[in-house]
Amino acid sequence: MATFVLIHGGGDVGWAWHLVEAKLRARGHDTVAPDLPSEDESADLGAFADAVVEAVGDRGDLSDRGARGDLVVVGHSYGGFTAPLVADRLSADLLVLMAGMIPSPGEAPCDWWANTGHSDAVAKQAEIDGGLTGSDDPYILFYGGVPRSLAEEALRRGQGRGGSSATYDAPWPLAEWPDVPTKFVLFREDRFFPADFYRRLAPERLGITPDELPGCHCAMLSRPRELADQLVAYLGSTEPARAERAAVEGERNGSVKR
Question: Can you give the residue ranges of the AB hydrolase-1 domain (predicted)?
Fold first, then answer.
């Protein structure tokens, strides 16, 4: 069994993961998908991470991690700024960004767009697909392929939750990427973050080649089975890191006993 901590993006809520959660729980895994305090204008990225850690509760206890299985932190879209903070605090076994924004140390979310060349990538892809990428219509931009009723419910639940200025304007607080194995997933039909954009950015910022899945930006609502399959497939990659951490913990405990 593993525990998957699922962090939603901007203008969204934990409900966005409910179909993926059902798939993971059907396989015997545990899930946590909290709402970030996006409506609180004073909440910064630290407060976002606090909310997730609190929701995880004793599932994040390192002393009981072996019995509970892997702890996997997943961040979608703007959740990419929060997920590494949570993974670092909880010494997660794995960090997965799904079309997640990849921050650099000291980089504020408001600066990320220009720093990464996002607008140029959108314009280039829009020339290819006739303006679908970067569309003003949220049903095209975010929810292409999502059943209309689900997309409408997602928009209803996300009203007023675009994110606080305290998170958007403040520098990302980590001095370096956390020492946690990291995977990246891009969605091939994403009209908000074009696939080619992340084919370039993930190697540049993380030094890894992204895995690719079909689906729109909010693929957790259009392709929940594929997302769950990919997350479960990643579990085998955590074994070396877990063994190394267990060895370190054993040495630490042995030194205390002496």
Answer: 4-229
**CATH number for the domain harbouring residue 224:** 3.40.50.1820
In whole angstroms, give the CA distance from residue 96 to residue 221.
18
Long-range CB contacts (< 8 A, 24+ apart) of 154-158?
A: 154/12, 154/15, 154/16, 154/218, 154/221, 157/12, 157/13, 157/15, 157/16, 158/11, 158/12, 158/13
Number of domains composing the chain: 1
- Judged against a pLDDT cut of 60, whether residue 52 lies above it is answered with yes
Reply yes or no on whether the pLDDT at 116 is more than 70. yes
Give the residue from 168, 144, 173, 24 showing the smallest Cα distance to 96.
Answer: 24
Domain that holds residue 83: 3-257
Q: What are the tokens at 178?
A: 């956390």
pLDDT per position as a tens digit, 138-190: 999 999 999 999 999 999 999 876 667 788 999 999 999 999 999 999 999 99
Confidence of residue 255 (pLDDT cuts 50, 70, 90): very low
CA distances from 205 to 41, 115, 184, 199 (A): 29, 12, 11, 11
Give me 162's structure tokens.
């675009």
